[in-house]
Amino acid sequence: MKMHNFNSGPSILPREVLQEAAEAIYNFDTVGLSILEIGHRTEWFIHVIEEAKSLVKELLGLDDNFEVLFLHGGATTQFMQVPMNFLEASKGAAYCVNGIWGKKAITEAKLFGPVTIAGSSAGKNYTFIPKDVSIPENSSYLHFTSNNTVEGTQWHHFPKTDVPLVSDMSSDIFSRKMDFSTCSLIYAGAQKNVGIAGTTLVIIRKDFLEHKNAGIPAIMDYKNHIDGGSLLNTPPVFAIYVSLLTLRWIKKEGGLAEMEKRSLERSTFFYEALDQLPLFLPTVAKEDRSRMNAVFTIEDKGLENKFLEACTENGMVGIKGHRSIGGLRVSMYNALPMESLELLVKLMEQFSHQYTS
Question: Would the N or C end of the chain have less CB density within 10 A of its end CB?
């Protein structure tokens, strides 16, 4: 049975990326060694990581005013590493709270200084993106999560502010064209649109580094990682290699313009179907719906479980909602074929017809 992968992360990968990665496990680039065996300071791997960094800047339209890092620890470590480096205790930092990940980021930031809530949708269970953001002028930075995987909301435009912008783009980076240069720091766990779990992409504007705090543990200091070329300690070699393969695939397919086109096609198709099926209940304000993660429910929890069983029987995995809120979730990352969505919608139509009186 063919499987259809709607997992929120680790998520679906392009088939050719999987094939190339599998081949490299046995023989990387015809050198006679596995990618799992090569030294991280050899020319073989230096070429890998340098090409990956170059492709990041090329695809995002960034110039040499930005540094690119591939680090350990996932986006969760960045919740702590960002304020450790940049939150000035005398100024504090501003945070938008639009879901569970923004809330977790604030908890970590408060360990390093005062935090102002610039905007929040907590009062309505994070089902919308706040339009009025209030940011103290002297804030060290404004942090926001560009796409909320759990709640299914997305910033379709970056907040406008004169303070440095810091964005957690773990789940929608490389899915659309934007002016990424307006951000002073972007971070993203790789396991959505950038490859597999194990490495974290961090992009920092050089002039933002001038405001870095002193007295940081060496391994947590971004400047040390930049000086070491992301090789301050042994990097996750295989994860970075898969990121390179994924970035090559994005470029070959047409770059961010093509990724955005496909993303709009997928999300428009799915949401139009969702809105027409009375059994399924969308939870997010229409204007703030995520193109990456569609979140919805069935009022009757017994039917919800039956629907999940039907999905499993038809080879459709990853549709159960996040454990913190339940419900249903369909993730539509770059590598998801339209065919998978079409089959899911067909199943939803059949199920709705069967159980709607």
Answer: C
Helix (H) or strand (E) holding 67: strand 66-71
Q: Rounded to whole angstroms, how far apart are CA atoms 99 and 287?
A: 16
From 91, 155, 172, 192, the catalytic residue: 192
CATH architecture of 15-253: 3-Layer(aba) Sandwich (3.40)
Q: So where are the chain's domains? A: 15-253, 256-355
> Which candidate in 168, 172, 221, 288 is catalytic?
168
Q: Provide DSSP, 250-273.
A: HHHHTHHHHHHHHHHHHHHHHHHH
pLDDT tens digits, 132-189: 899 999 999 999 999 999 999 999 999 989 999 999 999 999 999 999 999 999 999 9
Q: Look up the pTM and report it.
A: 0.97
pLDDT, one tens digit per residue, over 55-72 is 999 999 999 999 999 999
CATH no. for 256-355: 3.90.1150.10
